[in-house]
Amino acid sequence: MANEDNIKKDLNEENLENENIEENIENENIENQETESNKEYDDLKDKFMRLQADFTNFKRRTEEEKKGYIELGVRKIANDLLPVIDNFDRAIDSIEDKDSTYDGVKMIRDQLIDVLQKEGIVEMKALGEEFDPTYHHAVLTEDSDEYDSGVVIEVLQKGYLIDEKTLRPAMVKVSQ
Q1: What is the phi/psi pair of residue 24, to 5°?
Q2: What is the largest CA-CA distance in the chain?
Q3: pTM value?
Q4: Which of 43, 65, 97, 162 could form a disulfide with 167, with the two C-beta atoms 3.0–4.6 Å apart?
Q5: Dihedral angle at the C-alpha atoms of 148, 149, 153, 156, nearest 10 degrees?
Q6: Residue 16: its pLDDT value, please?
């Protein structure tokens, strides 16, 4: 009987060891699953962050493109309107009697100028300024005692700026 008791005791101890081993294996499996879950979570989190950054960049690029298209449209319309303003200036200069016709033409011209100014388009100052090919298109040169060499002495066609950039250069006569 003592032998049977020893065998039972050994079997119980073996069962306990097996249970401990199984429990350890189960704990390791759980830890591995948690580690894998954490890795998956980190991967998904990383993908989400990248996707979010890509979307933010996409929105920014889209807004910039939209702004560029709007600016292009404004430039195109402004370039089409500038000859009309030039013609109003010629009409104003040709009217000898400063009557209601003169006032009406001048009012329409001023209204067009106001519309352009709201879009950031302004007439550039050229007369008396030093010639700058960025802003001026020299059509003629002339000797002048009144001005130094390289100074704009006459504006033949007004130039315009849009947000400090040249929309149309001024056609000018420059002193030699």
Answers
A1: -65, -45
A2: 141
A3: 0.65
A4: 162
A5: -170
A6: 67
